[in-house]
Amino acid sequence: MREENLATKNCVALIEDDQEMCKSIQAMMESIGLKTVTFHEGHSFLSYTSLDEFGCLIIDLRLPDISGLTVVEKAAELQSYCPPAIMITGYADVPTAVSAIRGGMIDFLEKPFVPQDLIDQVQNTLQIDAKNRQIHQVGARINLGLSKLTTRERQVLRSLLACKSNKEISSDLDLSSKTIASHRANILAKCQAESLLELAGSIQSCGIEV
């Protein structure tokens, strides 16, 4: 099934307490046609209604209330989807950079950074966000379909994903070939997939457990 194309978001969330830095980054984003919504504390960002409008987060590592890393971690817990983030700081070190990347950061920039480096990274991040949203959309559809499967249909799906033949599935589950074909059709319909190959690919790419 072809998913709806998701337009690249043109809004960036900036979580930074330095007023001058905010003005500078906002000017950079405006130069490439991006809107910027600024937050001066981590909690004010986390209390924002929805992160869906943002295609990229730019976060200072050291905020007045909580760390930038904590902001990203909590945002991922509170929202069904959290856009990728770029961490900026005047106190960069290798361990923190590694932690940031493992935490889902796309890049780690030390202040003062070259403006074009941030612009390039933001544009790259927006493309990554669009791809992530596509995967998120597919995953939501597949998970909804899987939740509708009967116990027997789920057993048949697991066997099909294990590349077992109809004869093997028939022997394992004591089902006729006609019944297996019926279950297969129901599985594809519920998951809105046009083929088993498409469904298997979506399950693998989204990291879904059946």
What would you say this structure looks like, in words?
This protein is an alpha/beta fold. The chain folds into 2 domains: 11-134, Rossmann fold (3-Layer(aba) Sandwich); 148-205, Orthogonal Bundle (Arc Repressor Mutant, subunit A). It is 54% helix and 12% strand. The protein has 9 helices and 5 strands; from the N terminus they run βαβαβαβαβααααα. It has helices at residues 19-31, 42-46, 68-78, 94-102, 115-147, 151-161, 166-173, 177-190, 196-205, and strands spanning 11-15, 35-39, 56-60, 85-89, 105-110. Strands 2-1-3-4-5 form a 5-stranded parallel beta sheet, sandwiched between helices. Strand 3 (56-60), helix 3 and strand 4 form a beta-alpha-beta unit.
Short précis:
The protein is of the alpha/beta class.
Biggest sheet features: 5 strands, parallel
| Beta-strand share of residues | 5-15%
CATH class of the largest domain: Alpha Beta
Radius of gyration: 22 Å
Shape: elongated
Q: Note the total helix count.
A: 9
Number of strands: 5
How is the secondary structure organized here?
Elements lengths: L10 E5 L3 H13 L3 E5 L2 H5 L9 E5 L7 H11 L6 E5 L4 H9 L2 E6 L4 H33 L3 H11 L4 H8 L3 H14 L5 H10 L5
Parallel strand pairs: 1-2, 1-3, 3-4, 4-5
Helix pairs in contact: 5-9, 6-8
Q: What labels describe this entry?
A:
Arc Repressor Mutant, subunit A, alpha/beta, Rossmann fold, single chain, 210 residues, 12% strand, 5 strands, five-stranded parallel sheet
